[in-house]
Amino acid sequence: MSLYAPAIARLIEEFQRLPGIGPKSAQRLAFFILRSDEESARRLAEAIVEVKRSVKLCSQCYNLAEGELCEICASEKRDRSVLCVVEEPRDVVAIERSGGFSGLYHVLQGAISPMDGIGPEQLKMRELVERVASGEIREVIVATNPNVEGETTALYIARLLRPLGVRVTRIASGLPVGGDLEYADEVTLSRALEGRRDIGE
Fold it and tell me: I need a labelling partner for 4 at 20 to 30 A (CA). Which of 31, 52, 173, 184 fits?
């Protein structure tokens, strides 16, 4: 027997389906909605329905878009000779926030993970090869996550694209700004040493 009225129990159950939301957080969210006025609750519900209805994948890079192309692909100001390959749309947001990249993106929609049953066929690999084979791209920057799946995906992409005569590079990884050496793991320190550069560059 549920301790809550059926409508509240259903709302809590739906909130629990969200990533990172456990039973307590789901209850807090449900009671926040209950305390809100009806107009606020309606706006939230409409925003959820609207995002599901209007947001789709960009037909060129597979980032999130409300039209045929995302804003980045539609922009005339982007460098179309450099392509940055990322795992998820949120990675595009992270790189854009840095302000350090002005090229185009290709969103794989995941990473190779045999343990999860995700191989290259489940990702946007074929589409990546087609884009690079078009001849406009000179460099592909692989910006997958620095974990086992990301490294596997990066190596696969490098092997896939090298025969096309394009330069394939990998983003550097190492110590974060403000980090302490004593807290860094061996792999991070090793990568930081491998990626060292002259001071003043």
Answer: 52
d(CA 144, CA 110): 9
Return the structure tokens found at 89: 């749309």
Domain check: are 103 and 128 in the same one? yes
Give first-to-last CA distance, the chain, whole Å. 66
> Residue 75 — left, alpha, or beta (φ > 0 → left; ψ -120 to 50 → alpha)?
beta
Containing domain of residue 183, as a range?
A: 173-200
CATH at residue 22: 1.10.8.420
Instruction: State how far the Cα of 12 lies from the Cα of 4, in Å rounded to an integer.
Output: 9
d(CA 50, CA 45): 9
Interval 60-106: pLDDT, tens: 999 999 999 999 999 999 999 999 999 999 999 999 998 889 999 99
Q: What is the pLDDT of residues 130-189, one digit of tens each?
A: 999 998 999 999 999 988 999 999 999 999 999 999 999 998 877 676 766 677 777 777
**157 burial type by CB count under 10 A (0-12 exposed, 13-18 middle, 19+ buried):** buried
Residue 197, helix vs strand vs coil: coil
Closest CA to 120 of 133, 111, 128, 129: 111
User: Between β-strands 79-86 and 139-142, what pairing exists: parallel, antiparallel or unpaired?
Assistant: parallel
